[in-house]
Structure to design on (295 residues):
């Protein structure tokens, strides 16, 4: 999931267009992008869209619901749970209890509907408290699939410069380490300055170097840059193939550390190589052969 594109839940005419676009995922927004007067209408439109999705779709489908402290949260979960939904994007998460509350509501609806494949949770880190408790949030429930940065709410209200790379790096690293503690993925924030493509690329590249799997887009024009940045390079793929192949040989010999292309290799490097190859395979950049050990 290199890039996920936000789509307003009140704009159903954009759903099919987003599905036909190049983003790996779409994130339909029932929260900030929908006026209070249209919440019920948007919820119904999103639910109808999810139910009509084909089972063999390739895009990841995410819905950002309204916060657990709003009167809309329970209605959102009841409407969207079921086939077609992969992740619930939970906004304004402040602690582990928020996640557990959301997970319990989702489980209750899943039982009522007989949902065979429950959706995961993508928890937003977009408040000072959430950043301080990011690891707690990530570890709160097994439904948590990842953490997502939200720089707008996290920085703007407090006068913190959103477009200072030093600021961005600090928060990216903190969220990545928290996600790593829980063994879940980290996803980078959207960028509101749509025309600032240079900074978009810079920020995405910083996130990728820190191990983020992708970045959000609020406009289709941002998708191509994000996809390009989070695509494994040919050099990374070639090196990863060598690392995985050498790991099999090392296991036969009972060797715990060895070198590939002059670089020391052991278990963490093998894990990274396998992750790169799994992404490359999903993008059609490399084909897996039997016994390659990419799993």
């Amino acid at each position: 999931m290199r890039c996920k594109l936000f789509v307003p839940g009140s704009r159903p005419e954009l759903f099919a267009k987003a599905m036909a676009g190049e983003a790996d995922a779409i994130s339909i927004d029932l929260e900030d992008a929908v006026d209070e007067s249209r919440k019920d209408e948007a919820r119904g439109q999103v639910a109808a869209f999810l139910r009509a999705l084909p089972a063999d779709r390739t895009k990841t489908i995410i819905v950002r619901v309204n916060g657990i402290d709003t009167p809309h949260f329970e209605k959102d979960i009841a409407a969207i749970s079921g086939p077609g939904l992969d992740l619930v994007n939970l906004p304004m998460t402040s602690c582990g209890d928020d996640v557990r509350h959301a997970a319990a509501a989702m489980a209750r609806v899943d039982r009522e509907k007989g949902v065979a494949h429950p959706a995961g949770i993508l928890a937003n880190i977009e408040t000072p408290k959430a950043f301080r408790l990011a690891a707690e949030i990530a570890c709160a429930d097994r439904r948590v699939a990842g953490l997502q940065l939200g720089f707008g709410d996290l920085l703007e209200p407090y006068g913190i410069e959103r477009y200072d790379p030093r600021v961005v790096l600090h928060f990216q690293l903190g969220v990545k380490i928290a996600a790593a503690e829980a063994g879940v993925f980290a996803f980078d924030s959207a960028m509101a300055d749509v025309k600032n493509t240079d900074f978009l690329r810079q920020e995405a590249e910083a996130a990728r170097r820190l191990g983020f799997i992708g970045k959000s887009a609020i406009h289709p024009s941002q998708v191509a840059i994000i996809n390009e940045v989070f695509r494994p390079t040919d050099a990374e793929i070639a090196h990863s193939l060598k690392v995985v192949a050498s790991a099999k040989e090392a296991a036969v010999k009972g060797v715990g550390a060895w070198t590939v292309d002059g670089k020391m290799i052991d278990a963490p490097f093998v894990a990274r190589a396998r992750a790169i190859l799994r992404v490359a395979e999903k993008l059609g950049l490399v084909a897996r052969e039997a016994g390659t050990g990419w799993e």
